[in-house]
Amino acid sequence: MLKRLFLILFLLFLLPGQIFAQAEFSTDYTVDYTVKTNGLTHAKLSLSLTNQLSNIYAKEFTLSIGSTKLTNIIIYNSAGTLEPNIVLGDKTTNITVPFKDKVLGKDKAQTFTLEFDSADFSHRLGAVWEISIPRLSKTDNLNSYQLSLTIPNSFGQPATITPTPTSITPIDHTTVYRFKPEDLFIKGIAATFGRIQYFDFKLQYHLNNANLYPIKTEIALPPDTPFQTVIYQTLNPPPTTVTQDPDGNWLAQYPLAAKQSLDIIATGSAEINLRPKTDFPPQTLNSTVNYFSEQKYWEATNPKIIKLASELETPQKIYQHVVDNLIYDYGRLSENTTRFGAANALDNPTSAVCMEFTDLFIALARANQIPARAVNGFAYTTNSSLRPLSLKKDVLHAWPEYYDEAKNLWIAIDPTWGNTTGGVDFFNQNDLNHFAFVFQGQDSQYPIPAGAYKTDDRQTKDVEISFGRPLAHLPQTSLVFDLPDKFLAGVPLKGRLILKNTGNIALYNQTIKLSAAKMKLTQDQWTIAFLAPLSQVSLALEIPPTGWNQTLTDQLRAESELSSAQHPLIITPAYRLIATSPKFKLYLISGITIILLLIVLKLIYERFFAPKPD
Fold first, then answer.
1. Which of 29, 261, 406, 556 is 20 to 30 Å from 173 by CA-CA measure?
2. Rounded to an integer, what distance in angstroms lies between the CA atom of residue 436 and that of residue 438?
3. Does a structural domain hold residue 562?
4. Which residues contact 207 (CB under 8 A, 6 or more apart)?
5. Is residue 55 part of a domain?
6. Which residues contact 156 (CB under 8 A, 6 or more apart)?
7. What is the pLDDT of residues 198-246, one digit of tens each?
8. List of the chain residues with pLDDT < 50
9. Contact yes or no for 459/446 (Cβ under 8 A)
């Protein structure tokens, strides 16, 4: 009995297709991926198709490879080279292998080998090599699956590899990693070689005040996180101040006059780390933000959301459900994308972009009392089909975070890319491609990220990011006293002490101490929890009054961890200050002169002009 067999090798994602008579054949795979020093990956797939019945044989075999950039394709068996039929899809290469010989008989096997090169599985991203081998989708007729991954030693030591290899073998100038087959059915291989990525950036913000009165407004600057350090080279013009909101956003304040427009440019570099920084302040949940509440696009109290959330008790289960059940709609990228929200994403699962993947995860997490929030930012991708970006303004991306109470950390995940890459794990490991601009936890729509500060008549490219190089961290401050040198005795001394961050990185928990040799101080120490680069903080100074008749010379001294300043003080009684003042002397002489002049004028008047008595 002649049957045609179509078996699909799911290397990237499950494609619609038909598998005939799976019980009539069993398949065995031996797959070797060898990454070359230039990043090109050579794949060798040896397949054996064994008859389970005596009266059937396979006429052809179809594989779907999750890449459209295959080169040097060759297929052969013991009889020689086979001529495949190759059809390119949107994101796949479909290879049909016709068998020349009929292999009949139970337990008889048809074997062949496919080899090709691809640039889609390994990428050098700045200072990092990233390897992504998508998962194999397990089928009922699969008998065995063995995979090895060979990496050149020039890539350095691995920062992360998931799943965990079962063996690591050095061979010549390479290292061979092998894995449990059952792990590869759950998720693909994701490996990173390198621990820090560097992005240089230039961000432009366009502000406009259309009102007839002045206003104060703000922009969101990319902030530090436990996994991210932002070094600022310029911020022009400088803001009046930079504050940190409960979500950790850096909000730079700018005043705008009536009808004023203002363009702001920020340049610098971002360091993205795989591991959280040990010297970063702990990320305790801010008590002023309800990370369980419903908001627009996060319908945590919607009955459908609540019902589904009750079946998904952990962040990983929620992540996997979102990855498995939403379908990325590439057609929406060419439109003016509208944000659907979580509830609508459930009703329209085939038309999702990164906003829907993010919103649905957050709503389900919050319905389960798991703190969750959204991140907007830049995500580097070499393949917009496998790792799409959906926020069209300057090609930004959105992804969610959930709070891990055991680690005191917000954990970033990316269900969008988990879906579009066909199972690469974006839950259990961080990558070095995500650069956070803003965090939206207390508000699902604010703050808006760099790239979204547009004016109606100017649609410019405002986000420019490229791979960079390490920049030196320059923690620098200056202290400046803003108060007079001389004060009246008996009067409180009031002024300000200004701490300026003149360096290029943010400062945390800076202690400032104030001292005086003779005078008592109302407050002699401050702790500044956060000070953004190129910004300043002003501290109120007040020194209790001295005796009204006291004369005193003293010196104030302020010290921080990075700078110090001194300021002389002269306390003088009012009468002495008045008496010794040059202005007072001038006023006194002028007053006496005027009085004498008036007396003289009076005498002259009385002598010559006043009426005389009869």
1. 29
2. 6
3. yes
4. 217, 219, 254, 256, 261, 262, 263, 264, 453
5. yes
6. 129, 193, 194
7. 999 999 999 999 999 999 999 999 999 999 999 999 999 999 999 999 9
8. 1-21
9. no
Sign of the CA dihedral running 174, 178, 183, 184: positive
Residues 495 and 591 in one domain: no
Residue with tokens 């659907």: 340
CB neighbours (10 Å) of residue 106?
11
Q: Are 363 and 378 in contact (CB under 8 A)?
A: no
Pairing of strands 486-488, 564-572: parallel
Taking CA atoms, 511 is separated from 11, 85, 281, 284, 527, in Å, by: 55, 71, 15, 21, 4
Task: Provide the whole-model pTM.
Answer: 0.76
Q: Which of 147, 170, 194 is the last residue of a domain?
A: 194
Asked if residue 595 and residue 482 are part of one domain, the reply reads no
DSSP state of 363: H
- C-alpha 359/C-alpha 611 separation (Å) is 100
Q: Taking the alpha carbons of 223, 224, 230, 233 in that order, is the dihedral positive or negative?
A: positive
Q: What is the pLDDT of residue 16?
A: 29
Hey, which residues does 586 pair with through a beta bridge? none
Interatomic CA distance for residues 582 and 12, integer angstroms? 87
How many Cα atoms are found within 13 Å in the side-chain-facing hemisphere of 329? 19
Q: How many residues does the chain have?
A: 614
Give the residue numbers spanning the domain of 588.
581-609
The span from the CA of 33 to the CA of 177, in Å, is 10
The tally of domains found in the chain comes to 3
Taking a C-beta distance cutoff of 8 angstroms, is the pair 471, 504 a contact? yes
SS3 assignment, position 183? helix
* Cα 458 from Cα 176, distance rounded (Å): 53
Per the domain annotation, does 49 fall within a domain?
Answer: yes
The answer to whether position 350 is within a domain reads no
338: how many CB neighbours lie within 10 A of its CB?
10
DSSP secondary structure letter of residue 532: -
Do 521 and 586 lie in one domain? The reply is no
